Q: What sequence folds into this?
């Protein structure tokens, strides 16, 4: 892990998306505020007062789900909590990514720290210790319906807290949970009333993946503007359509931001100036994939902004059932239903697919001699002998086709569970899982466009591109260079890394300043 020096403090206030990314992706440590620990202790005392109450209280003295009518005697309640976690740790399939597990753990810690769940302070502190030690429980791909929380994924984490199940240590090595806890100087938790339920009943997995996706897509929309600018330049398109007054006629915020980026990126381009004279350039309008780039990338931005508002509200939430209210009531509720998060996860999959789709169409124009405005077929060195970037576009097309399938919403599906007690579920975890695959696909599609556009622009020499796009091309490793055919897959992977690492965006912003 890339440990950061600063810590994220979890308390009674809301975490930010940046906090989640810092802990999940960059290994920042977590601390719990003293104020939060005091509130946790206060709410725990309320739960303990209910333990001997003859009136049944869900999760304290009853079974779970459809078994909520079953009263559990005092002597069996510790076993009730252990059994809950063990039975719910029923995931299957490959392990999910470490950063997802860390995000999930942090967000459960955040809810526990609100004092609304009724756990003991030592449960919270041990969970924090497990996260800070770099212990990552082995969470499986399948098992969450996104209602009653991400039950199976969270249960695998709770199982590790009990010293059971499998985990990965800070070095990524698989160990048993008891071995990993012992190595970190932590004692497994003996769960008491309500605690097993509090550890598994939240939207933390889907929310963590939403935060990571928002972060990635925010950067990728800027990369999409960079690749669009390079394509406009390389295909001898016009920047006139990006004029500010034209976009003020339709004041969609994201569209205006994208158009402003394109104006910055295309500024002072020799290639653009070479065909500015309308008497010499007979093309009246560019194709939609060039001309309408701000409308598409801008719409994506606006959708990300909406998803961010949902994520921010969820980050300020205490999701559990039942909850301990501030005035001391213990109340059942439906806040664990993942619908709000599931919807925006699906929205983001739609705009991700569409951003990739328009990028692929721009790439394809470079390769068609009838539409590339003077470039060789497929950008090949010796067309016929060489195929140039022909199959790079096939790779893009395969990914875009996959992204269109992944854009099918998960949140419209529901399969009843728990003997019809849980008869409507969100499928938010599934929406999040497919969005992660979508984001990776978009990154790859944009990388191929960048690689192709760089080659196309180089074929326009001696004319030079604008300073911003030139900086991106100059920062590339030795790829996207015209010449005889060569092994292309490694170049594509280098371009993917160039985008993924932030190098493409950083190169452009050295010239333009921070893009919108």
A:
């Amino acid at each position: 892990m890339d440990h950061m020096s600063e810590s994220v403090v979890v308390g009674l206030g809301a975490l930010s998306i940046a906090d989640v990314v810092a802990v999940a992706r960059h290994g920042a440590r977590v601390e719990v505020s003293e104020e939060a620990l005091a509130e946790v202790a206060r709410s725990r005392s309320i739960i303990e007062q209910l333990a001997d109450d003859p009136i049944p209280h869900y999760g304290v003295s009853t079974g779970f789900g459809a078994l909520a009518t079953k009263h559990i005697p005092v002597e069996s309640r510790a076993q009730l909590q252990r059994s809950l976690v063990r039975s719910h740790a029923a995931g299957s399939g490959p392990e999910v990514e470490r950063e997802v597990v860390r995000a999930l753990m942090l967000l459960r810690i955040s809810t526990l720290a609100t004092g609304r769940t009724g756990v003991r302070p030592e449960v919270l502190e041990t969970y924090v210790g497990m996260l800070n030690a770099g212990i990552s429980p082995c969470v499986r791909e399948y098992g969450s319906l996104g209602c009653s929380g991400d039950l199976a994924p969270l249960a695998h984490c709770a199982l590790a807290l009990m010293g059971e199940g499998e985990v990965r240590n800070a070095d990524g090595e698989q160990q048993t949970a008891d071995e990993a806890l012992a190595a970190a100087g932590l004692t497994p938790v003996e769960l008491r009333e309500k605690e097993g339920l509090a550890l598994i009943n939240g939207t933390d997995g889907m929310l963590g993946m939403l935060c990571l996706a928002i972060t990635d897509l925010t950067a990728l929309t800027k990369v999409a503007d960079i690749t669009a600018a390079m394509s406009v330049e390389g295909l001898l398109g016009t920047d006139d359509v990006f004029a500010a007054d034209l976009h003020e006629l339709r004041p969609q915020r994201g569209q205006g931001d994208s158009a402003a980026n394109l104006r910055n990126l295309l500024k002072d381009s020799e290639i653009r100036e070479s065909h500015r004279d309308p008497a010499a350039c007979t093309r009246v309008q560019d194709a939609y994939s060039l001309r309408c780039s701000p409308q598409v990338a801008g719409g994506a931005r606006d959708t990300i902004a909406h998803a961010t508002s949902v994520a921010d509200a969820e980050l300020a939430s205490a999701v559990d059932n039942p909850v301990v209210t501030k005035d001391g009531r213990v109340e059942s509720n439906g806040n664990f239903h993942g619908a709000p998060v599931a919807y925006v996860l699906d929205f983001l999959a739609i705009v991700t697919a569409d951003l990739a789709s328009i990028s692929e169409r721009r790439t394809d124009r470079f390769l068609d001699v009838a539409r590339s405005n003077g470039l060789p077929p497929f950008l090949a060195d010796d067309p016929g002998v060489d195929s140039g970037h022909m199959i790079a576009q096939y790779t893009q097309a395969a990914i875009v086709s996959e992204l269109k399938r992944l854009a099918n919403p998960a949140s419209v599906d529901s399969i009843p569970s728990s003997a019809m007690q849980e008869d409507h579920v969100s499928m938010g975890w599934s929406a999040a899982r497919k969005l992660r695959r979508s984001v990776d696909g978009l990154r790859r599609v944009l990388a191929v466009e960048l690689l192709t556009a760089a080659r196309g622009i180089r074929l326009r020499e001696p004319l030079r591109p604008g300073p911003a796009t030139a900086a991106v091309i100059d920062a590339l490793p030795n790829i996207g260079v015209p010449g005889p055919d060569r092994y292309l897959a490694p170049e594509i992977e280098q371009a993917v890394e160039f985008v993924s690492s932030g190098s493409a965006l950083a190169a452009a912003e050295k010239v333009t300043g921070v893009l919108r």
Observations:
- The radius of gyration is 26 Å.
